[in-house]
Amino acid sequence: MLSLFVIVVGVLFFGIGSSEKTSKKAPEDEWVSKNLCKEGIKQRATHPSTVDIHGFLGYATNMSKGTRYTKLSFDAKNGYGLTLKYEAKCIIDSYGHLDISIAERDY
Question: What domain range is 62 assigned to?
C-alpha cells in the first residue's frame, strides 16, 4: 500500500512517466519555449482573457548551457479592471520545467 502511494505521489508531483522527448526538446526549440512562457503567463493572470502578449517587439530569448531564458512583454487587466504593462521572465531548463516571474513594467 505504501509503495502504491509513493508511485502515485511520484507521478503527480515529479512527472514520472512523462514524455522525455518533448520535455528535453523544449529549451532547444525557441518556439516551443516561447509558447510555454505564453501559457505560463495566461495561467498566472488575474484575467487571462485580457492578456495581450507582445510577441514580436516585446520578445527576447537566449540559450545558455541547455537552459533557455525568455522575456515577454504583455498588457493585462488587474483586479481593479485597469490595463497595466507587465514583463515575464521565463527560464526553461533542459528537462522542460518552467520557472516564471512576472513584474509590472515601468516603461
Answer: 19-104
> Among 9, 29, 17, which residue's Cα sits nearest to residue 96?
29
Is the CB of residue 76 less than 8 Å from the CB of residue 51?
yes
Q: Note the pLDDT tens digit of each residue in 48-57.
A: 999 999 988 8
Vertex 31 angle, CA 29 and 32, to 5°: 65
Residue 7 C-alpha from the chain's centroid = 26
CATH number at 37 reads 3.10.450
Contact of 74 with 54, CB cutoff 8 Å: yes
- Is 67 domain-assigned? yes
Q: Distance between terminal CA atoms of the chain?
A: 56
In the numeric block, which cell numbers belong to residue 70?
Answer: 525568455
Domain presence at residue 84: yes
pTM for this model (two decimals): 0.72
Domain count, the chain: 1
Instruction: Evaluate whether residue 5 is within a structural domain.
Output: no
